[in-house]
Amino acid sequence: MHGVTHNITAENAEVHSRKGVVASVLAFVKSPKGVHSLVVLTDVFALLLSGALFYVVRIHSGLLSDIEGYPFVVAMTTAVFAVMCWMFLFWFAGVYINVHNRALFDEYYSVLKVILFGFLFLVVAVYFGTESIPSGQRSYRLLTLLLYFLLVSGCVGFGRVFVRTVVKGLRRRGIGLRKAIIIGDSQRSRQLLDLFRATPELGYQVVGTVRTNQQVSQAFAQYALGTVDDLNEIIQKHNVEVSVLGMEHERDLVLQLMTETAVSYTTIKIIPDLYDLVSGRARAHHLYGIPLIEVNPQIMPVWEQHLKRLLDIGFSSMILLVGLPLWVITAIVIKLIDFGPILYLQKRVGLGGKIFTMYKFRSMQTDAEKEGISWTTQNDPRVTPLGKILRKLHIDEAPQFWNVLKGDMSIVGPRPERPFYVEKYTKLLPAYPRRLRVKPGLTGWNQVQAGKIVENVEFVRERIRHDFFYIENMSLRLDVEIIFRTILRVLQRKGQA
User: Fold this and answer.
1) Measured on CA atoms in the order 209, 210, 214, 216, is the torsion positive or negative?
2) Those residues with Cβ within 8 angstroms of residue 485's Cβ, 6 or more apart along the chain or in another chain
3) Contact 417, 441 (CB under 8 A)
4) Which residues contact residue 278 at a Cβ distance below 8 angstroms, ignoring those fewer than 6 apart?
5) Rounded-to-integer distance, Cα 290 and Cα 202, Å
6) pLDDT by residue (tens digit) across 372-414?
């Protein structure tokens, strides 16, 4: 009997183990990161395969017999290095963003542009970097590069088609769909509702519709989850990733939803009216004849985001290392004056509402907030004599370069605020949380534009206006301009004292 019980227990454990494996696989496939990882792995395999085929065709096919042979181990080592280079280019160019939410041609075209760029770079390197090689052999090398380009393009293309086929099959089974809501009733929004429900391979699962103040049809109302007043709760409850705005002639409402609600944190698709299309103010792509404008929450191009992060790391590292003697002296002087803490640690609200600890050289008395939280004002009596100097020269901000290195902040962006103020001003100004859509910065457009700091709603409105200008115009060019303007203000000693 004991043996039978042991066998049943073992079988149950095996069943649970299998269920756990299946659940893990399904969780991996359902997540956007899972599909992303599948595409990345397929690209790696395709690039390795193209390297192996290149070796076989070049060395063993006899088509390029004038080219000298080399060992297979050397060939594959070179192929692995090439894969690393290609994957970096793919990542830097952003070909993995919103993967498979585009038409196959658009998706492959974005990849092909990167491959073509790499091919042209290799051609230039061979043509101008091999003057000592006879022209005949140089022609053979260019021919081998063309062969490599065709193999890489073909293998990666077939890999993308394979993954797309797999993903479409999963979507037909309800796996890997992006949860969407349709806001506003119109003929086109009802058409889109029917299309998404009938064609899951498009990648969308409509969890329901949202009514506006306009009268709605029965076909739209039967899927309604609530009204626009319930929008934030609906998006949070159903984990909505895509918001389709289908209302007609309600432009003020569209702007309000895009800036003052949780819609701004989703991918936004707008069904335009004829005026938008005719006037040329909107550029739309078509989904089975239905025009859609897509507003992606991704504000900067991917390559600019990566370059911005590299600049953050490089600039912060340089400031911290080059200025190390000054930072050490500053720390010693702060400690000797009143034997209080050197650094002032404060909780701030970062990207997406994430709380992080911000570091500053202490410029105030140790009991500065004994009477409560308040902004630092011009000639604030709580600031120590040394603190006035540190603030004028902006030396007190130097430890924040460590926050930049950690990734909590960027060199340029809206200044991070304390949770107390975020909560306070969100109640007064519903659009305030939009500042949290980008990583906070050590300096920003408001810092190079604003005058005296005054803790009132009017000043906050002006700060928001400056921050929104930066968010809507984010670019490396604007970041460089803000950095130069900040340096100029520091040299002019226009800091807060």
Assistant:
1) positive
2) 448
3) no
4) none
5) 14
6) 566 665 666 677 888 888 888 888 899 999 999 999 999 999 9
Tens-digit pLDDT profile for residues 7-34: 555 555 555 555 555 555 555 555 556 7
Tell me the per-residue pLDDT of 103-145, one tens digit each, with 9 for 90 and over: 677 788 888 989 998 888 888 876 666 555 555 566 777 788 8
- What counts of helices (H) and strands (E) characterise the chain? 17, 11
From the list 396, 482, 489, 496, the residue with the least C-alpha distance to 443 is 482
Q: How many CA atoms lie within 13 A of 155 on its CB side?
A: 22
- Cβ atoms of 201 and 168 within 8 Å: the answer is yes
433 Cβ neighbours under 8 A, 6+ residues apart: 353, 422, 426
Phi-psi region of 348 (alpha: psi -120 to 50; beta: other; left: phi over 0): beta
Distance CA 418, CA 426 (A): 12
Q: What is the DSSP letter of 177?
A: P
d(CA 70, CA 454): 72
Can you tell me which residue has the tokens 């984990």? Answer: 239
**Among 324, 343, 342, 325, which residue's Cα sits nearest to residue 333?**
342
Give the Cα separation of 55 and 50 in Å (integer): 9
Tokens of 146: 């063309």
Q: So what's the pLDDT on residue 156? A: 93
**Polymer length of the chain:** 497
Return the sign of the alpha-carbon dihedral for residues 208, 284, 439, 348: negative
| Angle at CA of residue 119, ends 115 and 123, nearest 5° | 170
What is the CATH number assigned to the segment(s) 178-295?
3.40.50.720
Minimal CA–CA distance to 269: which of 279, 257, 278?
A: 257
Cβ atoms 390, 363 nearer than 8 A: yes
Measure the CA–CA gap between 474 and 301, rounded to whole angstroms.
10
Residue 77: closest CA among 99, 100, 55, 92? 55
User: Contact at 8 Å (CB) between 461 and 450?
Assistant: no
Instruction: Decide which of 173 and 16 is more confident.
Output: 173
Whether 66 contacts 137, CB under 8 Å = yes
The Cα 408–Cα 130 span in angstroms is: 46
| Domain coordinates in residue numbering, the chain | 31-172, 178-295, 302-491
